[in-house]
Amino acid sequence: MTGTPTAAPFLTAWFEILDGDEPSRILDLISDDFSLSILFSTGDGNATDFAGDRAALVGYLEQRERGTRTHHLLSATTLGQDELFLGEVRRAGVPEASFVAAGRVNGEGRLQRLLIGRSSEIRFT
């Protein structure tokens, strides 16, 4: 992703860190009461749900293929504490999947809730 201004600054920064050399830095951005669900579909009829708290996020990070996929913003908005981010996942620059992320940022500027859905069966580009 580029440094272009966006209506979802927290999630934009989150995905930039996730795509970078030290994706575990996102662990510094979550609240003490953080919870998430990342529903990850590859289009073969199977999906994996990484759901829970900090430990679930650590598990998600450990299984990721680091440096192979990048997240690209298609559209975004912020409504109060909530950010919505529609994006595309690319592998080596080739579109692989679409995803939508919803995050709630608490008053201390930390991510409290995260919901992500990913599918290779639909494109928004």
UniProtKB/TrEMBL annotation:
Protein name: SnoaL-like domain-containing protein
Species of the source: Streptomyces bingchenggensis (strain BCW-1)
Lineage: Bacteria, Bacillati, Actinomycetota, Actinomycetes, Kitasatosporales
